Amino acid sequence: MSQTLTFAEKIAKAPDFLPINGTDYIEFYVGNAKQAAHFYKTAFGFQTLAYAGPETGVRDRSSYVLQQGKIRIVLTTALKSDSPIAEHVKKHGDGVKILALWVDDAYNAFEETTKRGGKPYAEPVTISDAHGEVRMSGIYTYGETVHMFIERKNYNGAFMPGYEPMKSEYNPSDAGLLYVDHCVGNVGWNRMLPTVKWYEEVMGFVNILSFDDKQINTEYSALMSKVMSNGNGYSKFPINEPAEGKKKSQIEEYLDFYEGEGVQHIAVATADIVKTVRQLKANGVEFLSAPPETYYEMMPERVGKIDESIAPLQELGILVDCDEEGYLLQIFTKPVEDRPTLFFEIIQRKGAQSFGAGNFKALFESLEREQAKRGNL
Ligand code: FE2
Question: Fewer CB within 10 Å, N- or C-terminus of the chain?
Answer without folding.
Answer: N
